[in-house]
Design a protein that fits this description.
By secondary structure, the protein is an alpha/beta fold. It folds into three domains: about 120 residues, Probable tRNA modification gtpase trme, domain 1 (Gyrase A, domain 2); about 130 residues, tRNA modification GTPase MnmE domain 2 (Four Helix Bundle (Hemerythrin (Met), subunit A), Up-down Bundle), CATH 1.20.120; about 160 residues, P-loop containing nucleotide triphosphate hydrolases (Rossmann fold), CATH 3.40.50.300. It has 17 helices and 14 strands. Strands 3-4-5-6-2-1-7 form a seven-stranded mixed β-sheet, covered by helices on one side. Strands 9-10-11-8-12-13-14 form a seven-stranded mixed β-sheet, with helices on both faces. β10 and β11 form a beta hairpin. The structure holds guanosine-5'-diphosphate (GDP) and zinc ion. Guanosine-5'-diphosphate binds next to α9 and α10.
Length: about 450
């Protein structure tokens, strides 16, 4: 484990780029207060009490030029986000003044923070564990209230405590096993084997409980990849526009990639839908020749949920049948749209074609039946768990992967004991389980992993 206690002082703009009412430049490290004070005209920041905020001006000490009118918050170690001294300079929003202040701080001894470095320090200084660090990122990207609640639970350390206790239990047993081996008078293999078996079964059950939450956890965190498909003119854009209307649309900026990708999300009853290929839907509107089916095929591959729209005012076409056939194996919602017009397709007709789902009869134009679509999305994904807000949900692939590896190790413990393998071999598998769980919280995580994990954060966090 890393055990560095002294770090240089880092600085970054902690508010999103662009114009705003205020921007915040943040400094953290041993010299944070000293450096801020060098460029601040107002009270002597090195003398002020911790957790106080001060009015003043940022002045370039070499040119004596005044850069901005600011409020500077001074927070001394250890009760800060990073557990280091922190100064936050609230300046007037705007790209140029904010960047000038940052440049000035860099010229006076601070180093530009790497993405996620503030949070990384909070982790390295022992204020938070890895699951909490990850939840900071999840919180920033939370798409619905529920997603936020899950991230907050994790930030509170609920997952950390759970894992921590599992590890404690395992190490208690391992210590006991060690004692039994070291003192031959107690060396009753049978007793030792029983102890290990009981613990392995118990921990395995708890890991399985956690893994069972993963599907919902992942949907809340990453969104449910959803494709709205159907041949031209059935009402896809109308449905999309309905879903995107008002404050339901969430456009997130996916950081950490070389090119920022914009993803469109809609919040449907707490389920964040990540809409796939909406560009495709928008685009085809303008084209004389619409390429409905071809485009739909492409969107299908990455989707967790298909919303297949049919125009019930026209007889079922060959294209419709093809789409019904293509999506047979996928989780889907079938909408019989344009119910305001005389109906040429009935639910019974679809059933005769082998469609097992009940289609939803709707008129997007008249706003009829869409509530049923939203309700269906919600029940499809949150069936039993929607009210259990306090649950610990595992939500990211790293955590899921490690839990699975821990479970595999426990399976080896169990099968080894059943096969009467020597206790010291079984002990190794139990130790592996303990290590894998430790990687989840970071108590036992390799440095590269930590570096890689924090590099996914946005700048200034
Ligand atoms: P897309 O090509 O599948 O995206 O279909 P659009 O959403 O662009 O809709 C095609 C046409 O159908 C437009 O003129 C819409 O106004 C119309 N439309 C969409 N939904 C309904 C509906 O429920 N009833 C009726 N009567 N017309 C609809
Ligand atoms: Zn359209």
């Amino acid at each position: 484990m890393l055990s560095v206690t002294e770090y240089d002082t880092i600085a970054a703009i902690s508010t999103p780029p662009g114009e705003g009412a205020i921007s915040i430049v943040r400094l953290s490290g041993e010299d944070a207060i000293k450096i801020a004070n060098q460029v601040f005209r107002g009270k002597n920041l090195t003398k002020v009490a911790s957790h106080t905020i001060h009015y003043g001006h940022i002045i370039d000490p070499t040119t004596k030029q005044e850069l901005d009118e600011v409020m500077a918050s001074v927070m001394r170690t250890p009760k800060t986000f990073t557990r280091e001294d922190i100064v936050e300079i609230n300046c007037h929003g705007g790209i140029v003044p904010t960047n000038k202040i940052l440049q000035l701080l860099l010229a006076n001894g601070a180093r530009l923070a790497e993405p996620g470095e503030f949070t990384k320090r909070a982790f390295l200084n022992g204020r938070i564990d890895l699951t909490q660090a990850e939840s900071v990122m999840d919180l920033i990207r939370a798409k619905t209230d529920r997603s936020m609640q899950v991230a907050l639970n994790q930030l509170d350390g609920n997952l950390q405590h759970l894992i921590h206790h599992l590890r404690q239990d395992i190490s208690d047993v391992l210590v006991q096993v060690e004692v039994n081996i070291d003192y031959p008078e107690y060396d009753e293999d049978e007793v030792t084997a029983k102890l290990l078996m009981e613990k392995a079964i118990e921990v395995k059950a708890r890991i399985q409980q956690l893994l069972a939450t993963a599907q919902q956890g992942k949907i809340l965190r990453d969104g449910l990849a959803t494709a709205i498909i159907g041949r031209p003119n059935v009402g896809k854009s109308s449905l999309l526009n309905y879903l995107l209307q008002e404050d339901k649309a969430i456009v997130t900026d996916v950081a950490g990639t070389t090119r920022d990708v914009l993803e469109e999300y809609v919040n449907v009853q707490g389920v964040p839908l990540k809409l796939i290929d909406t560009a495709g839907i928008h685009e085809t509107d303008d084209k004389v020749e619409k390429i409905g089916v071809e485009r739909s095929k492409k969107a299908l591959s990455g989707a967790d949920l298909i919303i297949l729209v049919l125009d019930a005012s026209e007889p079922l076409t060959a294209e419709d049948r093809e789409l019904l056939e293509m999506t047979r194996e996928q989780k889907r919602i079938i909408i019989l749209n344009k119910s305001d017009l005389p109906q040429k397709i009935s639910p019974e007709q679809l059933a005769r074609l082998g469609v097992t789902e009940d289609p939803i009869v709707a008129s997007v134009k008249d706003n009829q039946g869409i509530a049923a679509v939203e309700q269906e999305i919600k029940t499809l994904f949150f069936g039993g768990i929607e009210n259990r807000q306090q649950d610990v949900l595992v939500s990211n692939n790293r955590q899921i992967g490690l839990l699975e590896q821990a479970e595999v190790a426990l399976d080896s413990v169990i099968s080894g004991l059943n096969a009467n393998m020597p206790i010291d071999l079984v002990q190794i598998d139990m130790t592996t389980c303990w290590e894998k769980l430790g990687e989840i919280t970071g108590e036992n995580a390799p440095d590269e992993l930590i570096t890689q994990l924090f590099s996914q954060f946005c700048l200034g966090k």
